[in-house]
Amino acid sequence: MSKAGAPDFFYREAQRLGYVARSAFKLLQIQNQYKLIKPGSSVLDLGCAPGAWLQVACQSLGPLKNGGSVVGVDLKKVKVPSIHCDARVQTVFADVMKLPKHQVRALSPQHKGFSVILSDMCPLVSGISTKDAALSFELGMRALDLAVGSAAILADGDNKDGQSDKSISCSDDAGVLKAGGHLVVKLLESEDIQEFSRICKPLFKKSSWLRPKATRSSSREIYLICQSLKS
């Protein structure tokens, strides 16, 4: 069992296979289990640095002739990896927390929205568990708001005994995830994750938690896989 940051099996495999980070194996496992990304899918990758999920997403689209697109957004400037990516992949240097939905939608094919939204966003860890978990929840809620729109979240919030204040300030425009689309959100384990799951559950046909095998033993991260957004 490796210490955080120490080379391990997944790190070595990433180097061998040309992935820019070991995190590629987290999305590979998600994709193998849930088959979220299909040929022709339009994928939005929130918090895309350093680009490993861009690589896996593009691979999952299949050959270039199948079409599809992958758009990565990050606070850091991310160069599209030369391996496992092709012309269908682009990156945008922007703050997800401040990016208006209409600008996000404009990044999708024909401005019609995305079929898959991936959020691997994580706050700068302070080491204070409650603070880190709260920041992670905020990032998760932002991803959900971009996906489904604040109207859907607030409608659910009417039944939550005032808990909807955690959903951060959002405009009431529609989300950018297509009906039937899928959402993957990373959170740090805390009591808040069940609240997040409870908000998502009525919005999607199916939702389930996954802790990928490539997750370091010292990490508290866990992913909520939300499948088939209800229309």
From TrEMBL:
Q: What is this protein called?
A: rRNA methyltransferase 2, mitochondrial
Q: Give the matching HAMAP family.
A: RNA_methyltr_E (MF_01547)
- Report the Pfam families cross-referenced here: FtsJ
Q: State if Transferase is listed as a keyword.
A: yes
Q: Which family does it belong to?
A: Belongs to the class I-like SAM-binding methyltransferase superfamily. RNA methyltransferase RlmE family.
Using the record, list the residue span of the signal peptide; answer none if the entry has no such feature: none
Q: Which InterPro entries match?
A: RNA_methyltr_RlmE (IPR050082), RNA_MeTrfase_FtsJ_dom (IPR002877), rRNA-MeTfrase_E (IPR015507), SAM-dependent_MTases_sf (IPR029063)
Specify whether Methyltransferase is a keyword of the entry.
Answer: yes
Q: Which UniProt keywords apply?
A: Methyltransferase, rRNA processing, S-adenosyl-L-methionine, Transferase
Q: Which domain of life is it from?
A: Eukaryota
* PANTHER family assigned: RIBOSOMAL RNA METHYLTRANSFERASE, RRNA METHYLTRANSFERASE 2, MITOCHONDRIAL
Q: Name one GO molecular function term.
A: rRNA (uridine-2'-O-)-methyltransferase activity
Chain ranges of the Ribosomal RNA methyltransferase FtsJ domain:
19-227
- Tell me the active site: K186
